[in-house]
Cytochrome c oxidase subunit 3 (Spirobranchus giganteus), 299 residues
Amino acid sequence: MSPWARVGHSPWPFLMSWSIAGGALSMIIWFWGGHFKIILYHCVLVGVCSWGWARDTIREGTFAGMYTSWVIRGLKWSVQLFIFSEVMFFLSFFYAFAHLNVVPSFEFGCQSPPPGIKPIHPRALPFFNLCVLLLSSGFLNVATGNMRMGEHHECWFYLVLTLVLSSFFFWAQYHEYSRAWFTICDSCYGSTFYMLTGFHGFHVFVGSLVLLINLWRHSEYQFHSGFNVGWYGGVWYWHFVDLVWIGIWTFVYAWGSWGGTRGYYTYGFVDKDPLYHKCKYLDTLSSAEYLAYLEALHP
């Protein structure tokens, strides 16, 4: 007898791949002046495919008993590899932001943040979000322990607290964006900042949806005291977004606003570089002279 489950034919992998590809193509069309409704249409398709695929997966594993130990092992590896790919995704943006701070362009006066951009203070809303995510991870660990001990109501309570804290994160992130002194169009600092924090917010939203599904499944008594792939996958993903925010707060908010003021050229690494002396000259210019210099540099 094969240790692998033999499931029936499923249309969801094919439909999901085409929905995601169509969403990416519609976004490119929107960038070139297309209509935004096409993106919303593909987002609805992705949501429908995700719901149908998750429904079939829950039926196969919970009710049909198709998840053998080998299948569970493969699912664990797939979740871990998916999280690893997300780590590589965020590392690319961290590298871009680090390069911006360590080697800032001389068109912006060799400064990071560039002149005219007031960075967000790390001890304001970003630190509040850091505390919220750390506390939510603690509550999620408590809920996991309660589930393993068979304490149904206590597990439900701490999982609800985790979701409430995630809503606090979205509230704080909205107020931070609405009160920021710069936008995504304000130099490479604004683009990397909003790409990092925005994609992280999207991942928090996805993690909240997974935890919400786990809350519903827990209310239906679909989890047992052993290893549950759906539950632990959501826990691992939530800890991942928590660790990413620790990195964002450390490098983007704290180091980006306190330690990355002058960058590479100020730390004495390239004192003999001719660009270093050009940057020292740019620091002595007024705002009008600096704008005139940029216009002459890029007519």
